[in-house]
User: Fold this.
Amino acid sequence: MIETVPVALGTRSYDVKLAAGLLSEAGAHIAPLLKRPKVAIVSDAHVASLHLDALTKSLDAQGISHSNLSLPQGESTKSWAHLQDVVHWLLSEQIERADVVIAFGGGVIGDLVGFAASILRRGVRFVQIPTSLLAQVDSSVGGKTGINAPHGKNLIGAFHQPSLVLADISVLGTLTERDFLAGYGEVAKYGLLGDAAFFDWLEANGPALAAGDEALRLAAVKHSVAMKAGIVSRDETEQGERALLNLGHTFCHALEAATGYSDRLLHGEGVAIGCALAFETSARLG
Ligand SMILES: NC(=O)c1ccc[n+]([C@@H]2O[C@H](COP(=O)([O-])OP(=O)(O)OC[C@H]3O[C@@H](n4cnc5c(N)ncnc54)[C@H](O)[C@@H]3O)[C@@H](O)[C@H]2O)c1
Ligand SMILES: [Zn+2]
Assistant:
């Protein structure tokens, strides 16, 4: 069964659809958005090697033609150099204003490709197909897109909402344990944001969820997305409440800068450590 979480943003509203095995139906969900049967897919090489076939088969089944650009995996891909690669590639693929770009990967691909879509021809639509836990529960929803600068993380970017988010819970099965647990840092964050019942539920179900239980994974992702969708619909551009989602992120961003945005520290690991430091600080402040 497909679960749907609406993100209510007036004319920029969209749905987040979630299910195990959703990738095999992606084409059918994307087809209604298209003015002509053609899409451009940007992914990272690792995700593409594992899951691109399933996505392209579902597009083929709908008669949607597709081309793919695969970028190196890792945070350093969120750079001017790769932004330029993506934009130039989309232009060479003759992606027009009315076309749709697909961001297929983790938060790195979602942020980079969303930003590319926001500036290509002054803005084209894009679909997020998040494949990491972090991207499914957080980065694919809400329209924050961008790249990193030498001065800090995510300092160059735009608010650009996707037209659709398709989260296939089954693809989480190929994440390394480290990547899965890093994403869980953002899930636990939602519990700490004022949802004690969800935090308790995670305390009880976290181990089974981490071990691979897809029903529990779906429940956790859906709850997290619903919390984010509510906050984003009340405060799209972070004038107030949306800043709650940055819990632990001040410390996290400092730690990521100190470790050179390398895989020495993953973003979700930084969030987990950052939440602990934020609580330590607030306790010390009384
Ligand atoms: N826009 C936002 O609101 C927002 C929110 C939170 C985080 N972020 C950004 O998200 C990024 C982190 O996202 P991430 O943790 O997804 O990083 P990522 O995109 O680098 O993915 C992590 C790793 O997992 C691999 N991977 C992804 N899906 C996989 C799958 N199904 N199977 C096997 N491997 C898979 C990737 O190849 C990569 O090596 C950071 O840049 C962070 O700033 C953005
Ligand atoms: Zn984060």
Residues 21 and 119 are 32 Å apart (CA to CA). The chain is about 45% helix and 20% strand. The radius of gyration is 18 Å. Residues 138, 186, 249, 267, 271 surround zinc ion (ligand 2) (CB under 6 Å).
